[in-house]
């Protein structure tokens, strides 16, 4: 492919591993069996005599159809058996329900459940509940649980709890958990792992620790999966040292670390360029017979590239061969994606051209990744050249490839060109799908061609494509953007009529539009209606309204809204931090602390951002008294700020040119048993230096180094502050 390129990151040319020894086993052909048809096995249908499946023979055939994956034939046989006097076999029907649900055929799965009748077992109902939950039909899952002729067990409740957590409906998930306990159903380690994962994401790992400590009292010991969730949360919050402590404690809990345990730690070390610790951890993994494999390295490389740290990702790739691993197409595609995201498309193209010399053949994902980068850079001629190369290399584009191009064109307002690409898809054996049409609709709405969008929306059925929730929400957003509120209301009515009820995104779309136009009272009214319709507002909903109220200067209204939130709706940490920050910046530190009290009452605990916002709110006139009073109020709430929290407070105070106050807060920190770390001292040193107290800063630095509190190398590293 002829394109201008620049130098790409130097990547190792791996040695290909020897192909594994493969032994081919022949599979014997099944014996054919014949059965004489008698009058008992025949029935009239459409005026013709057909074989009547019955008894063991029919169920034997059903098992065979299900095992071979002939779903439609199996479904037809179930219908045929149920018309007779016998019931279909339970086990193959359970498998059939699972496969139908996996394929999105919930209605057909319901038919199988109905055909089983009283023969259905607890496994049957659990499979159907799981299918409902995976399809997002949570209310149907709840109705089925209530109608079960058996006492629900852990496998009944776990899918429901997981589905609610995934959708951010954590209070409802906790209510199901309480109902589970009330029914005498003991939660399993899977139940707790689901709740722990969600709690860590919503409220931080410290809140998750409380849930973890509760498990033994409920007769449920955490396993390695549970601890992996906690370690991953700690690493995501930047507390890798605390995660290492948990790792070290695993043997005392009877748990052996696996690759999933080590991977987030490795990612954190690599992200923060702590290469020595990363190397030591790799040695530990090998010693524990858990050597990193390609999957581990690919996870790290992908994570680094997603964070824009492509150079670090390349360094990790360089080290793969030292651990017996060979970079594969997944590795290089991640690097290419990272380069494209950083706008280094030429380097990505050069790496693509070198892949074959590395023993890797580009696949559709690789090409599509490059195409996305070229589209973002609006290099349309290069896009056409690369598409031609895909055909030459016997790797023709698929629907995902075309949708990537169409999406980019629409995002840049080139909807006419996107429509032409859509019309060309059939020439290459591809059919426009719901993603294609949603992209076109979004593009039309963005350039305010709402009538054209509505025309396409109405014609979608004739194109063999039924609108989904994304389609409705996209069109709704367009209608709201041009103040067509009656049409938006009619569209929402159609959603209910078409069995596609409005979700959180639907309501958030309307609320966002109202807030953007300053119609705050109407937005709050929609917020109320949303709850009445059984669609619980999520943290995003509250963030939208609260942010609009604060920008409009309605601080008290924002406080009232959050204070009056019902138990079923809990704003997240980001929402509260936004409010606290805005109030504190206005110098209303007492009101900010009141909001902190509300936040704690909702089961959320302050993080580094919370404390930093409070500290920024301290005016120069507040002085030491204000800072200490703030810390005392925090303690009165039952909170004990840790070292990270105190460091955030000290940093904010020093940035406010009040190092004298920071030193008093430091004394308060130590007197309350919270030990400072290197970051604590460095914050104070830099604060003194910035305010011109150079002699005091030098004396403190040398004093700390002589006592071994700080490394002596810091004297040279920090010397520029004292010049």
Automatic annotation (TrEMBL):
It comes from the Eukaryota. Gene3D superfamilies: Tetratricopeptide repeat domain. Residues 11-20 have a biased composition (Pro residues). Residues 50-60 have a biased composition (Basic residues). PROSITE patterns: PPR (PS51375). Residues 37-49 have a biased composition (Basic and acidic residues). The keyword Lipoprotein does not apply. It holds the Pfam family PPR_2. PPR repeats lie at residues 121-151, 153-187, 188-222, 223-257, 258-292, 293-327, 328-362, 363-397, 398-432, 433-467, 468-502, 503-537, 572-606, 642-676, 677-711. Keywords: Repeat, Transit peptide. Residues 1-60 are annotated as: Disordered. Belongs to the PPR family. P subfamily. This is Pentacotripeptide-repeat region of PRORP domain-containing protein.
